Amino acid sequence: MEVKARAPGKIILAGEHAVVHGSTAVAASVNLYTTASVRLPCSSDKDDIVKLQLKDLALEFAWPVSRIKEALGGFVGPISTPTSCPAECLKAIASLVEYQNIPEAKIKLASGVSAFLWLYSSILRFVPVDVAITSELPLGSGLGSSAAFCVAISAALLALSGSVNVDQEQCGWMVCKEDELVLLNKWAFEGEKIIHGKPSGIDNTVSTYGSMIKFRSGSLDLIKSNMPLEMLVTNTKVGRNTKALVAGVSERAIRHPDAMSSVFNAVDSISKELSILLQSSAHDDMSLTQKEEQLAELMEMNQGLLQCMGISHGSIETVLQTTSKYGLVSKLTGAGAGGCVLTLLPNLLSGTIVDEVIAELESCGFECFIAGIGGKGAEISFHDLV
Ligand SMILES: Nc1ncnc2c1ncn2[C@@H]1O[C@H](COP(=O)(O)OP(=O)(O)OP(=O)(O)O)[C@@H](O)[C@H]1O
Ligand SMILES: C[C@@](O)(CCO)CC(=O)[O-]
Ligand SMILES: [Mg+2]
């Protein structure tokens, strides 16, 4: 038996960073997935081994189960009550990761491997297993790769452990029940904490539930957008690390508490207005073009406040300047300082202009695609092995 779980990445339409400080944010899932495949090993010579394969990165890690159990066994609690990885346990995990000698060029993956070890130990409790990960998401680029990784792994492990009960006879991708989604989201959040330090929980929540969400202080409202939304995503390919950027914004907030609290309040108002705008129905007093103009203005204001937080970057400014030559508005998405930038593509924009913008952005060395947004969240499927 093999269990597969897939979880989408996300874009943040408004509110990144401020959401860590209690402001409202609006996010939507994107149709790029991370998939975790989990199976019990078939040959008895592997019955004391936990294997983690990162297929796209051509990396494979293996640990004796007894070694993981000895290091982490004393720290895990009940599956039904997701718990944070204690500092002492993180140290034990660090030495299990060190033992794998990750090549220096790929050392950023250590935090993902650490999150895996905590989720595996807590959910599967030292059963030998083979886990393989594939992802369509660019890593460390603002599209929520860390959250999709944690949601996909947690979902597959919860399904294998029987804590999530989807119909094993049914073919294809299946969605969990509401209470199971709550449990899945909480475990994924514990993994995100290991990768992000102090996440707000928005990325794992949108990856778990999919669709579009308004999120504030751990609680979510699902949003049904009443306007067609097309976003061009430009990956600047400038690498960055969400944990360090979140910490940097928090340090700025400590240095300038009043000013930064005004910035976070302004972002809160922008996100709330944006969510009302998206949900306002077609027969309300505004044409689609007027709604798009307002949305663009809100995105532009949010981008200005993200610059105030210190997380813009030369590459992001290049995207803003390039798209503005075509009358288009852009904002960074995710943690910033590189990574991905969103550009709103209004409904009546001609395909020729879109092609021209993309060509100009790609001539700067960036990569562009049009995101499918607001689709499915986490899904599980079962496969018999022959
Ligand atoms: N498929 C994967 N395999 C292994 N590790 C992964 C994978 N996806 C994400 N990670 C882990 O997550 C890290 C990237 O997370 P980070 O939060 O910095 O960026 P992001 O989630 O892509 O962007 P953002 O948080 O801004 O949305 C990687 O360095 C790695 O440790
Ligand atoms: C930067 C941030 O706001 C979003 C990262 O996608 C961090 C978080 O909310 O956890
Ligand atoms: Mg992340």
TrEMBL record:
GO terms for biological process: isopentenyl diphosphate biosynthetic process, mevalonate pathway; sterol biosynthetic process. Pathway: Isoprenoid biosynthesis; isopentenyl diphosphate biosynthesis via mevalonate pathway; isopentenyl diphosphate from (R)-mevalonate: step 1/3. Residues 127-210 form the GHMP kinase N-terminal domain. Belongs to the GHMP kinase family. Mevalonate kinase subfamily. Its EC number is 2.7.1.36. GO terms for molecular function: ATP binding; metal ion binding; mevalonate kinase activity. InterPro entries: GHMP_kinase_C_dom, GHMP_kinase_C_sf, GHMP_kinase_N_dom, GHMP_knse_ATP-bd_CS, Mev_gal_kin, Ribosomal_Su5_D2-typ_SF, Ribsml_uS5_D2-typ_fold_subgr. It is found in: Cytoplasm. This is Mevalonate kinase. SUPFAM superfamilies: GHMP Kinase, C-terminal domain, Ribosomal protein S5 domain 2-like. It catalyses: (R)-mevalonate + ATP = (R)-5-phosphomevalonate + ADP + H(+). It holds the Pfam family GHMP_kinases_N. Residues 293-346 form the GHMP kinase C-terminal domain. Keywords: ATP-binding, Cytoplasm, Kinase, Lipid biosynthesis, Lipid metabolism, Magnesium, Metal-binding, Nucleotide-binding, Steroid biosynthesis, Steroid metabolism, Sterol biosynthesis, Sterol metabolism, Transferase. It comes from the Eukaryota. The keyword Secreted does not apply. One of its GO terms (cellular component) is cytosol. It comes from Cucurbita moschata.
